[in-house]
Amino acid sequence: MKTLRAIIENPYLLLVVSIVLLTTSLMEAWDTLLEDLTNLNFKANHGLMVFALFNTLKALPDLVEGTERFIESREDGESAG
């Protein structure tokens, strides 16, 4: 169960899945996006766009924090060595 949770909560995987969802939903709705929004004609691909956008935003803080920690540990390692 811990392995499954680690996979599901992996920010890199979350980001990749979110980008794939966002890209495919945008490709599907791109031609009529403005028209659908002005006419309030919402479809499933619009919901996927919103879901993907929020999941992308959800993944970003974890990725930035991980990158900052990685840089700090490298700097600490270089100053110690």
Explain what the structure shows:
The chain is mainly α and 81 residues long. The protein has one domain. The protein has helices at 2-8, 11-29, 33-38, 44-80. Helix 2 runs antiparallel to helix 4. The protein is elongated and about 60 Å long. The N and C termini lie far apart (39 Å).
Summarize this entry quickly.
The protein has 81 residues and is mainly α. It has helices at 2-8, 11-29, 33-38, 44-80.
List the helices and strands and how they pair.
Layout: H1 2-8, H2 11-29, H3 33-38, H4 44-80
Mean pLDDT score: 86
Radius of gyration: 18 Å
Order of helices and strands: HHHH
User: Which runs of at least 5 residues are low in confidence (pLDDT < 50)?
Assistant: none
Tag the structure with descriptive keywords:
elongated, 4 helices, mainly alpha, 81 residues, 0% strand, single chain
